[in-house]
């Protein structure tokens, strides 16, 4: 007869992606003795303090919440010890110091939104689409001293559709990941979790942190690269470029939904063509058809609505 371990779980996470897993743990009646999340942050025009999605869920479910600013502080470590947890689960949180991740008897494991060892880093869902991957997935692994390098416990794979956006893939992996965490917890609970050491490979793909520079569209790239980049950043943080509309200053614009049109043309890359309420941008091998665009200080609009109130110069270009 197999003896089930009596788990006392501390959960660590911050955004919506982590909420699905925390909810799944509660729905499966696991004993979550504490929730660690980011401190409240100023948000919105009024800069009022806003709680993380994980905190809001935890408070609504009467869970103990801790919001340390310094994970190495003696006060936080001492308080964490008082919870007497024997398992810690991390989903979309900061890098943990050794004093924290090595604390529980049964270890600390992380849910990562890629098929490790590829796409270690901050933005694995985005980069899988940006790089044109056809498959991705989620991985649970025990945390060690480096980022996303620990021994793998379980993986689950899923397809990436040709027109899937990062928002759509995020929600799909959020659901798959929350279920994989439950499967992982059940293995640990039954003391039969097996692990695989991540292979060392110099050619691994990395999920670099996104910034203004690497979110900018290069209209000199081929059509597939541009298309993948835009959908891999839609709806957040959003691909962008400059619009040269014949004015003195270039206008930064955000590009959301697009489709691609393979065609031969003689236009310079970035040239904007307007026809029948359509906005097309010339690039190698065809056109990117812009279906949703956002001008500075304006709301996001579909191309037809935008063209009703905005006039493109006959020599307009995306740069």
Structural commentary:
The protein is of the alpha/beta class and about 325 residues long. The chain is built from 8 helices and 20 strands. It has helices at about 15-25, 55-60, 75-80, 100, 125-130, 165-190, 225-230, 305-310; strands spanning about 10-15, 30-35, 40-45, 50, 65, 85-90, 110, 120, 135-140, 150-160, 205, 240-245, 250-255, 260, 270-275, 280-285, 285-290, 290-295, 300, 315-319. The strands form 5 sheets. A 7-stranded mixed sheet has the order 5-2-1-6-7-9-10. It has a 5-stranded antiparallel sheet with strand order 19-18-13-12-20. Strand 18 and strand 19 (about 300) form a beta hairpin. The longest helix is centred in the middle third of the chain and has 24 residues, at about 165-190. The chain is elongated and about 70 Å long. The model has no long low-confidence stretch (mean pLDDT about 95).
Largest sheet: 7 strands, mixed
Estimated share of beta-strand residues: 25-35%
Number of strands: 20
Cα(first) to Cα(last) distance is: 67 Å
Helix content: 25-40%
Which structural category fits the helices and strands?
alpha/beta
Detail the poorly predicted runs: none
- Number of helices, counting only DSSP H or I runs of 4 residues or more: 8
Trace the largest sheet across and list its strands: 5-2-1-6-7-9-10
Element pattern in H and E: EHEEEHEHEHEEHEEHEHEEEEEEEEHE
Instruction: From the alpha carbons, calculate the radius of gyration and give it in angstroms.
Output: 23 Å
- Give the mean pLDDT: 95
Assign an overall shape.
Answer: elongated
